[in-house]
Amino acid sequence: MASGCSPAAPVGADAVFQAASLTKPVIAFVALQLVREGRLDVRAPVSRYLPDGYTHRQNPFGGPQDRRVDAVPASTLARIPLGTLLNHSSGLPNWTRGPLAPEFEPGSRWQYSGEGYVLLQAVISAVTGQDIESVVAQRVFEPLGMRHSRLRLTDDIRAQVLDGTSRLGGRVRFDMREPNAAASLYTTAADYARLLAAWLADPTLLALVMEQAVSTDVALGLAWGKGWGIETAAGGPYLWQWGNNPGFRAFAMVSVASRNGFVLLTNSERGMPLAASLAHATVPAEHGVFRFSALG
């Protein structure tokens, strides 16, 4: 979907959108590959991989001029099992501009956390010896043929990237110029569909997603696995993730059983309601996820 253009402007197949939190399943795909290879252990404390602690950037969206940081000691990381970063049960907040620490006992309940995925980014870089852009390019974008996808805004895709649009119809410029494992993916619908297909084609990774899922809303049949939300409506389980950046809304859902699904990328803050219509057309069921309060 394109907004802020002429009323019926078509979107080309190579139009690039900010996918916001649809970044997280990309990072989880890498992390669970490393688990399968024995290089990461979801039960191990984060301190195993960051024994000298973690330098937390307090405003990761502030641009290069904002470099406020705090030091998270290894003793704090020792309280956080690695797997809790993937399923949002680490106790870390979504975002904080202050010192980073768990707000409750890690593993005890669910709380959505972008900070957890940025911490996971540091873990992946530590165990691979590479920056997260290189790791994702080598393990995801290149082998899956995601030719138009990047983990930040780069010059080679700039001409394909659509501007965002506010709820009032104004143009929004919110460029993600630094890689952020929680929110900085630039991609096309076709590229992201390749990622969905890769998840479905890998039963080992799917099994890891489902293990020790944390309940998010029992009444709606929702839980969170390692990298994906899980819905247990009729015909499920379904994997899903939503995305919300200034000027952009995104949603992806796929049925593990039927292999049907969809990717919604919009450059409009009014784009999210389209997800329910697409779900009805592609994976018809009574989807409780669209009543989930966290969607906003």
From TrEMBL:
A single Pfam family it belongs to is Beta-lactamase
> Domain Beta-lactamase-related: where?
9-281
Give this protein's Gene Ontology molecular function annotations.
carboxypeptidase activity
Keywords from UniProt, A to Z, are: Carboxypeptidase, Hydrolase, Protease
**Highest taxon above the source species:** Bacteria
Q: Which InterPro entries match?
A: Beta-lactam-related, Beta-lactam/transpept-like, Diverse_Enzym_Activities
Task: Please verify whether the record's keywords include Magnesium.
Answer: no
Please give the name of this protein.
Serine-type D-Ala-D-Ala carboxypeptidase
Which organism is the protein's source? Hydrogenophaga taeniospiralis CCUG 15921
Q: What is the lineage of its organism?
A: Bacteria, Pseudomonadati, Pseudomonadota, Betaproteobacteria, Burkholderiales
